Amino acid sequence: MYNTRTPLSMQQPIWSDQDTTFQEVTPDSGIETPAMSVGKQIMRNHVRNLFNVLSLSPKERRIIKLRFGIGGGKQRSLSEIGEIYGLSKERVRQLESRALYKLKQNMNSHGLSAYADFLV
Asked: What are the structural domains of the chain?
């Protein structure tokens, strides 16, 4: 009973004959893998370039950027965007939906289908 109450160090070796520590075998699910992080960064750059190519209206472009925090901003809710532009929450949702439809239609033709795993 006494040993079960003693806290263990994450730096402590698991086995006495090896150097493997608890920290090495315990995954941290809160940290992205380097490959996932780099992939997302490359995808962001492609999406920014796609904005310049697509025929999104200026309003649609601004709504998508605000909604998803593209360009360094924070993600905004539909009602926050509606307050900024004097639109109803439903109208913002409609504009967002139309812009996302245009983006999805152009994913394959602009080489973004490789990033389907990153999209939620």
From this structure: 57-119 (1.10.10.10)
